[in-house]
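go over this:
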Amino acid sequence: MSKDVPEIHSNAHLLKAALVAAAIAAVVLVTTILPAEYGIDPTGLGSRMGLTVLNPDAAPAASATTAPVVAAEPELDAVGQPLKPVESAVVSKRDREYRRDTLSLTLAPGKGAEIKAAMKSGDGFVFHWTASSEVAVDMHGEPTGAVDDEYTSYWIEPALRVGAGTFTASFDGTHGWYWLNRGTSEVTVEVEVSGFQEKLFIP
């Protein structure tokens, strides 16, 4: 009775198989693992097969068609410092003549009077007024062509001796103050206005 006996490989066969496996492993290492894992591509096959992009530390290949980026030279001001972005909203340019006007008036007891500035929309001034005694005041404006009692009040006080600030006209017309002397003696009011008003006058 015969029986199949498994073939037993000789040492020569085992050595040959080991060498073939080692050669295959070396090829895989050089062409696949090194490009993919470490970005090392001595044969160039890794980049052609797209394996080098798998390595996060690999530097991207330079493109022959990409022009180098050259930083633009900054613009300089008159003293050689880089120009800063312009904040146009903080500047209101005016071609109108800059003026400084002063006026004064005297209020009898129980009487009121006005000083006004003729202005165009967008023009402004800095103002300062003083009274020799407390007066009621209404800073207001009337548009050009206004009918009776058509006005806009900006600042009302029942008793004040000094007023100061800045003002910008929101419409063409006259803008200014009405003072009322509620006391028993005469009061003198003096006004100074500097800016782009067309004129300062007593109506």
